[in-house]
């Protein structure tokens, strides 16, 4: 089974092709440059180098977010459209889990982290799976949360926590202040999400699910973890209105 | 048998193009349009025949915000895009195997919205070794007319919508000269803003048009003719004049008939649009005048333009309503010209929000 992995959800652009046994090829850059321009030429080059035609793909796995709204949309739209055009299944993988996979062998919790401005971060909590399969179990759902609040929560436990992600350095002092020696970090290479992990997770999920289960391709949408600002404002206005109406009664 | 495995997309699609040209069958273009708040996909045969034209409009979603919210529009495009594509193929009773090329609007428009269409188009082309065609949104609006009647050159197109007000001269196929454009608000934008100050719901254009039919021109609003001989437009002064008039009346405790305000405003808009169009058409001795864009639905504008073109003896083309507002069929109609010429886009095609026409 050949599975293509794609991640354009943050600054990193990463694509990879895996089969059942091997990682066959991977291309990753970490620079502020347009994913819209670069994704398809990169895919074209990777498959051409691997002497592989797109119709030999059996599935596509894509980082579904959270991250840059535009970045996530480029990857998800490309993955959806290719899967549709080829008639193959699509699998979404959390962009946070993709990062956390770099901590697969860490004895403790893994907290992937993406800065979301105004003191907030996108994060979740993962730990190595109990089974022998090389995978991570979810401990705490992906979310957007004030870093302060997240660190409060983590400091309740004595477990060491590995922080993964290129944005971790922005908050490293703050994290160390709160968690002391339990706060662990990786070398720069470990902070980059790798499409190989995404493709591998996708391939496993496709093998496990087989006939009975499949992602509904058409309705597949990014995991933004946040409403669009205008929607959030509109909803809070509606709520205010309901409250005033309620108190008027 | 040659092994195609190590061919890149460029080579695969060139082979397909040459093969398809040699076979000489019908040209089916799968077209995509996501530049604003409509997600649309269409299949066009030979640049003229609509096999399908699916449109998922978000107007209901954006109504609550009083205008199009780019982030919301982009999100909906991602959710709708493959479904629209599949419905377009199904309705056209063709499969991707029958598609000669994929065409997509790559500008101008909302960048986040355009990006969805561009990403989808490129991915389909890459996956299936199909040629890719990038189309200018306004070229699409103009070529919507080709779905109704063959175009005859030279022609003049008046493109009026929420985002555009342009007078475009075409001396040849797919050759655009922008004679004039708005220096501030687009016509549709001015309509929406005036509608808001009249407390009419979004989108306001149709409401003003409807009310104008029932009102009388009682207020002499300004007409921005600009410099002698200029084909440019300006609507912000007119818009401010309407808002000031309403404001002053309110302060004096007077009530103006909404119908009359709408009629007076619309009269001022139409005067300038129609007179400049006729002037440009006469100067360039055109064989056709085309009306295009969402505001082409405006009955006042249609009526006056019809009257004036008849008087001048110039044939007028106005596409049916569903081809005036944003749709993918028009993109397919325009793309066909580029297909015939073998002008294709590359895999690095990007959304260009401020793309110029000429
Ligand atoms: Zn338009």
Overview of the structural elements:
Chain A is an alpha/beta fold and 249 residues long. Chain A is built from 7 helices and 10 strands. Chain A has helices at residues 35-49, 69-86, 95-100, 147-154, 168-179, 195-209, 229-248; strands at residues 3-7, 12-18, 23-30, 59-63, 90-93, 109-115, 120-128, 136-146, 161-164, 183-185. In chain A, the strands form 2 sheets. A 5-stranded mixed sheet of chain A has the order 3-2-1-4-5, with helices on both faces. Chain A has a 5-stranded mixed sheet with strand order 8-7-6-9-10. In chain A, helix 1 crosses helix 2. The radius of gyration of chain A is 19 Å and the shape is globular. In chain A, 45% of the residues are buried. The model of chain A has no long low-confidence stretch (mean pLDDT 94). Chain B is globular, with a radius of gyration of 22 Å. Chain B has 12 helices and 10 strands. Chain B is of the alpha/beta class and 358 residues long. In chain B, strands 3-2-1-4-5 form a 5-stranded mixed sheet, sandwiched between helices. In chain B, helix 5 packs across helix 12 (328-341). At the A-B interface, helix 1, helix 2 and helix 7 of A face helix 3 and helix 4 of B. The complex binds zinc ion (ZN). Residues 137, 141, 161, 293, 326 of chain B line the site of zinc ion.
